[in-house]
Structure formats: structure tokens, C-alpha cells
Design a protein that fits this description.
About 50% of the residues lie in helices and about 5% in strands. The chain is mostly helical. β1 and β2 form a beta hairpin.
Length: about 110
């Protein structure tokens, strides 16, 4: 994980999933790592690195389109937030209000 190496996006996504699972598990880092046979030092290093990367990129995250169909102009769309929360946005929406809502949701920890 040296700073000079190119990013391995598959490895980063794997660690993002692990960290999200840990957050939802309610376990301590030590217990989670023991259960999943992970080295706690690696867990802490990846958690720190991902936090730094997220802070550098701001609140925006990569978007993954699901399905082959093109949405019609009249269909709502969904935004899946960190922690698995889903925001359903109607076809016509107030961009300023949505932006404010996303900022608020970014500050609130997942339930």
C-alpha cells in the first residue's frame, strides 16, 4: 500500500466492503478481524487510507449502473449511499434541495 504504487481498485473495493461489514456488525475491530481471519494492522491501514482518499475526493463516490435498460425520463432513480441507505429521487426534483439532503446524509452516521 505504498503511496507510489498504482491503485488496485478491486482490492480497494474489497476493503471498502469489509469496512462496511464491520460497521454494520457492531463488533470491535479485533473481534471482526478474528472472525474473518484478517490482520488488524491491515484493517487499520486500509481504513485510514480509504478515509484519506474519501477526504481528498469530497462527498462524491463512483457510480455503478445496474441493469442494461436505459431509464425513461418519467422513472425515478435511486442513489445508494454508504452504509446501504437508498435515496429514491423522483423524475422531477429540486437540485438544490437534493444537494442539501445529500450533505446532511453525509454527516449523519448510518443507523
Amino acid at each position: 500500500m505504498a503511496q507510489g504504487r498504482p491503485r488496485d481498485s478491486r482490492k480497494e473495493q474489497q476493503w471498502r466492503r469489509r469496512i462496511q461489514q464491520w460497521q454494520q456488525s457492531g463488533l470491535s475491530v479485533q473481534a471482526f478481524c478474528t472472525l474473518h481471519e484478517l490482520a488488524p494492522a491491515s484493517f487499520y491501514a486500509w481504513r485510514r487510507l480509504i478515509g484519506q482518499r474519501d477526504a481528498q475526493t469530497g462527498p462524491f463516490v463512483a457510480v455503478q449502473l445496474v441493469g442494461d435498460e436505459q431509464p425513461s425520463a418519467g422513472q425515478p432513480f435511486e442513489v445508494v449511499l454508504p452504509g446501504g441507505r437508498t435515496l429514491r429521487v423522483p423524475p422531477r426534483f429540486d437540485q438544490v434541495a437534493l444537494r442539501q439532503l445529500l450533505l446532511v446524509l453525509q454527516e449523519v452516521s448510518p443507523c
